[in-house]
């Protein structure tokens, strides 16, 4: 269901569209860069409304000559990035972007850490590092192949820049994984202890021959099977985590 804000934007935009191109540009650029603020904050609904009736907005650039495509990529807004990515040949032209001053290409830009608010979309340093790596690989697929090994003015390759910028996050991720593994080992040990004891303390005691009184009951078979699975699973997980 569309929100009131969504409807308001559509109504305002319908008033703006008939205006001359230069007036539209002034409105979008003052008092702030509306388009780039929307791309930076992830306001995908707003951009969809604007693109639908004014496709040329995709070529707008900021003070550093970066398009909405680059702003979305830098800030890890997948929805906005995907919308522009689906434009076909346009994405190839946008992906070939390169900053004049620093000679950074799109891959260099996404190699840097995003804002904390974007990084904390997922919890846990290890998952954050995984998300960063997946995002870097996704952008790597669309840039020209020559850009993958290209160096900026500082002589940095995008991959090396990614490694350097994410060094602390990687260390935090390793620490997080070790702490999580320790907690899992503790839980696995407790489960194994309980189910092992349960295997020798069957419900209903035993008869004169030493057999369980309920051995012919269906629920007893289910109990034995469940206990065996729990013991095997906890023992296996303990061995796997401790390696």
TrEMBL record:
The keyword Membrane applies. Residues 174-238 form the PGG domain. Keywords: Membrane, Transmembrane, Transmembrane helix. InterPro entries: Ankyrin_rpt-contain_sf, PGG_dom. The chain crosses the membrane at residues 180-202, 222-241. SUPFAM superfamilies: Ankyrin repeat. The keyword Transmembrane applies. Pfam families: PGG. Signal peptide: none annotated. This is Ankyrin repeat-containing protein ITN1.
């Amino acid at each position: 269901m569309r929100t009131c804000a969504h409807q308001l934007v559509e109504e305002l935009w319908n008033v703006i569209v008939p205006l001359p191109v230069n007036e539209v540009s002034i409105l979008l650029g003052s008092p702030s860069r509306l388009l780039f603020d929307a791309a930076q904050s992830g306001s995908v609904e707003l951009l969809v409304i604007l693109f639908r009736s004014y496709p040329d907005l995709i070529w707008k650039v900021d003070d550093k000559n970066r398009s909405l495509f680059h702003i979305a990529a830098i800030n890890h807004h997948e929805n906005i990035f995907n919308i522009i990515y689906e434009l076909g040949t346009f994405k190839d032209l946008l992906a070939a972007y390169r900053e004049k001053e620093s000679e950074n290409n799109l891959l260099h830009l996404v190699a840097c850490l995003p804002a904390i608010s974007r990084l904390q979309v997922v919890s846990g340093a290890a998952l954050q590092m995984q998300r960063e790596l997946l995002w870097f690989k996704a952008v790597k697929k669309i840039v020209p192949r020559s850009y993958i090994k290209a160096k900026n003015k500082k002589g940095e390759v995008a991959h090396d820049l990614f490694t350097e910028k994410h060094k602390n996050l990687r260390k935090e991720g390793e620490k997080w994984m070790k702490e999580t593994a320790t907690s899992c080992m503790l839980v696995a040990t407790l489960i194994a202890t309980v189910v092992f004891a349960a295997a020798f303390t069957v419900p209903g005691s035993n008869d004169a021959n030493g057999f369980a009184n309920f051995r012919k009951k269906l629920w007893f078979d289910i109990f034995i099977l469940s206990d065996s699975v729990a013991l095997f699973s906890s023992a296996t997980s303990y061995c796997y985590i401790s390696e």
